[in-house]
Amino acid sequence: MADDEEMKKGLEGVLVTESELSYIDGEEGRLVYRGYDIGDLARGASYEEMLYLLWYRELPTEAILAQFREAMAADRQLEDGVLNVVRELAAQDAAPMSALRTIISTLSAHDSDAADEADPQNLVANVRKGRRVTAKLPTALAAYTRLRNGQEPVSPRADLDHAANFLYMLNGEEPNPVAAETFDMALVIHADHGLNASTFSAMVTASTLADLHSALTSAVGTLSGSLHGGANQNVMSMLREVDESDKDPTRWVEDALEEGRRVPGMGHRVYDVKDPRAVILSEKSEELGEAAGDTKWYDYSTAIEEYIAEEKGLAPNVDFYSATTYYQMGIPIDIFTPIFAVSRVGGWVAHVLEQYEDNRLIRPRARYTGPEDREFVPLGER
Catalytic site residue 319? Predict the structure, then answer.
């Protein structure tokens, strides 16, 4: 069938909606949340402040932030039914992202606002749901990680902030100030990034007026794909290979490229220059190494970054430095992507709320390229 309309694979460059949430300048290397530069937010605001900004449009006052933190902390504990599912997933050694997807679906069955699923555009109920999922997801991920390692879950602490509490539940001890601050910054910079694949899938689901948990489950499923959320795991695996070889990082990369391998964590669909989030995390990766008395992971990374920039003209994206940042905090490599979800869930919730606010069913078209005018033959004559 003839169709002269221009087709853009992957919807690249297609403008599909308006949003007040985040702005990306790929040429200048800027990321902005509701008008605030990501560097200012990462260095000056906590994850809880950033959540409030995304969900309520403005940064909170001290008094409002205290109330918001208290509400978040009160929502961290998992219901027995949810924890039982987490135990079963750990016992079955489910893939971490598959486990996270199932956990979000399970949370919907235990949410006290589930009755409002009949009215998915109920803003007040959706904010409460979003807050609960955001608060409980770190608890579930930490419990899953410990259980699969033969350890019992650690209960959340209300006196710790969102980032420090996750590290406490994961490792069983309160993190040092450098680790807590670094992880908080990592959560802030991963929280939103325009209409990335997982955010868009959440919006598509929400546009059908499916409930919030369904939209978030769609997002987690999308994030699990290797082209979206898994690059930092590949980066750390690469750096460990470099460390185990007797080659310097530049020579290792040269050999890898000659063998047809790709260097993960380099280049970005949107940024033409170094990802501003990578700028922030590279500083924290170096700081963590210096605090531990060993900067080899940071040194490997910068050597590879310089070589790829010179040879390929590519700059690192956020995954390149989040890998060493997480690894130096003792976070297992295979939960790097689930941690991405623990942060990005705040942005997903914000985009779903925005979609509900001015909803139109997202329904693109495809150009038909199949056969035409085929004659049907009854079953007995085929």
Answer: yes
